[in-house]
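Rather than argue in generalities, we reproduce a single protein record, letters for residues, whole numbers for local backbone shapes, just as it appears below:
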Amino acid sequence: MRWRKVKQGKEYSSKKANVQEKDSKEKTLNLESQTLKHLPQKLLSELEQSDSKALFHAGFLERGKAQVIDTFMIYMPLLYVLTYGVIGSAQEFRDSSWAPFAGVLIYGSIVALLLALKGQTPGKKAYDLWVVRENGKKVTFIFALLRFFGFLLSGTSIVGILLPLWRKDRKALHDILFKTIVLRKG
């Protein structure tokens, strides 16, 4: 008798998992139908080449890991060159009032340029993430630069960065403000 209850419980949980899989597939289909017409050509070509043609909203951890990769691949070398190549020493960098601001501005410009040209930064490429507007179109350089400053605003409020943990569409504050979505190839 006990074995039946356990078995029934497993069947129930597997039925529940099937329902959740159906729900996630429906969300994926809806996401594709809304934005598929206007997605950037490079994303469409990569979707055609891959086995899975599904798109999902990128999760909090994926976005966080991509940001860490971007920090180490773009921002840290930039700060090194700025500190020792342009200014001369770490002490002078710390004493400078313009150097940290210039580093952030150059980093934001590089990120905006990569998003405008490719729709991805190196970290986002590592996790198959794409930044597009809600209507599916590519972001422009100015739009991506403004989104970067929105990201800085989100980071100062902490809640803006943690917002994807509570939202179903997994948008951070800067995504909401600038009507962008971060998609993950599935």
Observations:
- The first helix runs from residue 2 to 35.
- The CA atoms of residues 35 and 127 lie 20 Å apart.
- The first strand starts at residue 55 and ends at 57.
